[in-house]
Amino acid sequence: MGGKIVAYVIYWLLPDEMDIHNLAVHSAYRRQGIGKSLLQEVIDEARRNGSSRVTLEVRRSNEAAQRLYYSLGFVERGVRKGYYSDDGEDALTMVLEFDG
């Protein structure tokens, strides 16, 4: 992308799982597969490191992100009421479990 940072992901790699804290793509670069590619890379990293699952939270209103996560095999696990401190919005908790 011409040397520009247009996307990033922040995650924690724990002994048995990976927790994705934040995934962002610059608005001018969305809907080009960048987020999906980046997310697939960190999922692959989790597998290489022996994680049994990847977890994340997503705003209930962020349907585009939810579609991305569902497309990669994540499922909804629950709801965290009032999770986001800026506006009190709920978060959906999602998980991708690895077989074996």
Molecular structure report:
The protein is 24% helix and 36% strand. A five-stranded mixed beta sheet has the order 1-2-3-5-4, covered by helices on one side. The chain has one domain (7-97): Gcn5-related N-acetyltransferase (GNAT) (Aminopeptidase, 3-Layer(aba) Sandwich). The protein has 100 residues and is α+β, with helices and mostly antiparallel strands.
Low-confidence stretches: none
The CATH architecture designation is 3-Layer(aba) Sandwich
Strand order of the largest sheet: 1-2-3-5-4
What profile does the largest beta sheet have? 5 strands, mixed
The helix-strand sequence is EEHEHEE
Write the layout of secondary structure elements.
Blueprint: E1 7-13, E2 17-25, H1 34-48, E3 53-59, H2 63-71, E4 75-80, E5 91-97
Parallel strand pairs: 2-3
Antiparallel strand pairs: 1-2, 3-5, 4-5
